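Progress note, sequence design subtask.
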């Protein structure tokens, strides 16, 4: 043991230099504890209590008294608080001859971070020269840096997500744009997943713009977007690819008997007048369709082109109708097989 000589002990000085010390007499009775230990023990006065009732000595394990502690020379002592948390502590002991006292100076060792959080400790609870204070500052700085890093990461992720959404969305309608459609289309083709592609073009939309202005046209386009979303499933893709042109992708739906009723509902709803100021906007729609199962090896450009051919076949046949692509529409040179054509309604006279 380190031999400390002196006539008197200044408790205030000990509290300042060693706020986690314990003074114990030869009988193992606590004479004084440091301010931080007092705080850890709930602020209660431990004077007069047995050292071994407050602390459980873990090592050396053969120690039964304070004299035994002194007999182990410079060995470290390992303790555990006898509280609900059983916090581990490490320390050294020094016998003080002439006063029959033992000075035990403690620390939390590697458990200091847990102790600081558990007991609400701060830098002022440790000796100014204690390296624990430096470590707490480093941990606090690291914690602040990590928090700032997380916030920055969340901000950048949010901005990235927002930028990606803006890059793949049509500003006016909120639908997917051509870029987003191309990504979805190529994904389904690469997976060889069956789907139907629909090309929808508004009839008489130009008359709305020319007669009532672009504000009316924008209102109509927003209404069209709403209808298309309402008439499709969550996993369908709806994209605005031009002024009044829309392309829709229906995964897993390739039978004309399943697709045509959807086309019929869309055209019927799009023909409902859209109120604008003191008048009404009236449009309709022509639709061209093609299924990926009509091809041995479907390609995005070919399917879009064939859906476009089917769309203009619908317009040639009177508008306000839907047509499935067949090879004869391209002079017999197309890649699709089979023949399906459905006229849903006759052309309507539309008043702008």
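Output:
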């Amino acid at each position: 043991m380190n031999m400390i000589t002196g006539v008197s002990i200044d408790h205030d000085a000990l509290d300042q230099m060693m706020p986690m010390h314990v003074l114990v007499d030869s009988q193992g009775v606590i004479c004084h504890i440091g301010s931080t230990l007092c705080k850890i023990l709930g602020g209660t006065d431990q004077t007069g209590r047995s050292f071994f009732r407050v602390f459980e000595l873990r090592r050396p394990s053969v120690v039964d008294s304070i004299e035994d502690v002194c007999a182990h020379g410079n060995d470290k002592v390992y303790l555990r608080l006898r509280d609900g948390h059983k916090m581990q502590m490490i320390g050294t002991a020094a016998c003080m001859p002439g006063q029959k006292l033992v000075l035990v100076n403690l620390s939390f060792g590697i458990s200091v971070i847990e102790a600081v959080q558990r007991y609400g400790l701060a830098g002022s609870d440790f000796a100014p020269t204690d390296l624990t204070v430096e470590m707490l500052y480093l941990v606090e700085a690291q914690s602040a840096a990590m928090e700032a890093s997380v916030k920055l990461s969340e901000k950048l992720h949010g901005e990235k997500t927002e930028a990606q959404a803006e890059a793949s969305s049509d500003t006016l309608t909120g639908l997917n744009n051509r870029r987003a459609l191309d990504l979805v289309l190529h994904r389904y083709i690469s997976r060889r997943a069956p789907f139907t592609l629909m090309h929808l073009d508004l009839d008489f939309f130009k008359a709305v713009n020319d007669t009532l202005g672009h504000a009316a046209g924008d209102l109509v386009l927003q209404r069209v977007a709403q209808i298309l979303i309402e008439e499709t499933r969550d996993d369908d893709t709806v994209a605005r690819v031009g002024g009044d042109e829309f392309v829709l992708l229906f995964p897993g739906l390739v039978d004309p008997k399943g697709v045509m009723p959807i086309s019929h509902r869309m055209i019927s709803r799009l023909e409902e007048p859209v109120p604008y100021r003191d008048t009404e906007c009236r449009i309709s729609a022509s639709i061209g369709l093609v299924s990926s199962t009509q091809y041995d090896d479907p390609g995005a450009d070919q399917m879009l082109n064939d859906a476009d051919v089917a769309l203009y076949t619908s317009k040639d046949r009177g508008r306000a109708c839907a047509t499935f692509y067949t090879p004869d529409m391209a002079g017999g040179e197309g890649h699709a097989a089979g023949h399906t054509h459905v006229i849903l309604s006759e052309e309507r006279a539309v008043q702008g």
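The chain has eleven helices and 14 strands. Work on this subtask will continue into the next period as scheduled.
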